[in-house]
Amino acid sequence: MDIEKCDVTVIHEETIEKVKKDMLGNEELTEMAELFKVLGDPTRLRIVSALLLSEMCVCDLSALLDVSQSAISHQLRILKQTRLVKYRREGKVVYYSLDDEHIETLFLTSYAHISERG
Amino acid sequence: MDIEKCDVTVIHEETIEKVKKDMLGNEELTEMAELFKVLGDPTRLRIVSALLLSEMCVCDLSALLDVSQSAISHQLRILKQTRLVKYRREGKVVYYSLDDEHIETLFLTSYAHISERG
DNA sequence: TAAACACATGAACATATATTCATATGTTAG
DNA sequence: CTAACATATGAATATATGTTCATGTGTTTA
Questions:
Q1: Which of A45, A82, B8, B118 has its Cβ near the most Cβ atoms within 10 Å?
Q2: Residue B112 CA to chain centroid, in angstroms?
Q3: A90, exposed or middle or buried, with CB in 10 Å at 0-12, 13-18, 19+?
Q4: Which helix (H) or strand (E) holds B15?
Q5: Per CATH, which fold does B25-115 belong to?
Q6: Are B50 and B65 in contact (CB under 8 A)?
Q7: Closest CA of chain B from A99, distance in Å
Q8: Do B116 and A30 form a contact (C-beta atoms < 8 A)?
Q9: Cα gap B52→B44, rounded to integer Å
Q10: DSSP A67
Q11: Among A8, A40, A87, A80, CA closest to B31
Q12: pLDDT confidence of A6, banded at 50, 70, 90?
């Protein structure tokens, strides 16, 4: 065994070394955390939830979710930057839709998680 | 068509009504957003990433991730509250491990997402 | 019982971020 | 070209949140 003061060293050095080797790198984990963070805002997740059912324009999203047009635009900008949504322009109107196959999986898995218990 | 001022009403009323009907409720979406938010912090996701490989005590996580023991404890508390981790006590040492089958799916899907493009 | 250790937690502080407000941009109709 | 409209965006503000610091709790050992 390898027991010393926690401040100085560690209790299970072998475990740490093994995990350190197999674990994902910080860059990747940071990027993944960014993705989760984007989905971790109620307004953005409601937008995603809506776009999962149909493409929509900013105005419709604003009305549907009862959130100001400006707030919706700001959030769509973030979703765009993370490449979670794409858009197409038709005259004055801009239509947004989901731009990633994985979003639905994340969405459904999250739903399964919260559905499992009270 | 159904075009009026965006502030007053909406452009595609039928789409909105349809989506409003089929969309998940706000309570569920808020709960799902909470889950994503918890995974959306780099420190917490690194903890999850480590526990995906092995159960670990607080001290080991602190050393592995180079984060103070206090910070790790605070984050584990949040992961506990969301029931993402469970723990068992063995003398002075508390061992944490993942407490949900869905976490790995979320983790892998997120990884697939960020791996797809530069 | 007292000291040592592993972990938990409350308060404070610093930073991040979501919304609002005002205004800019881009497009169409008249 | 100008007015009207849909959307985008910068600045400001209010709130949320992650870390640190100090200290508390629970367990073991000497």
A1: A45
A2: 16
A3: exposed
A4: helix B13-22
A5: Arc Repressor Mutant, subunit A (1.10.10)
A6: yes
A7: 11
A8: no
A9: 12
A10: -
A11: A40
A12: very low
- Report residue B79 as tokens: 């992961």
Q: How far, in Å, CA of A31 to CA of B39, rounded?
A: 12
Distance CA B100, CA A52 (A): 25
Q: Shortest Cα distance from B110 to chain A (angstroms)?
A: 6
**Residue B43, both tokens:** 């420190």
Q: Can you tell me the distance from the alpha carbon of B118 to that of B116, in angstroms, rounded to the nearest whole number?
A: 7
Structure tokens at B85: 């981790």
User: Which one of B30, B45, B100, B103 would you mutate to disrupt binding with A, by most A Cβ within 10 Å of its Cβ?
Assistant: B45
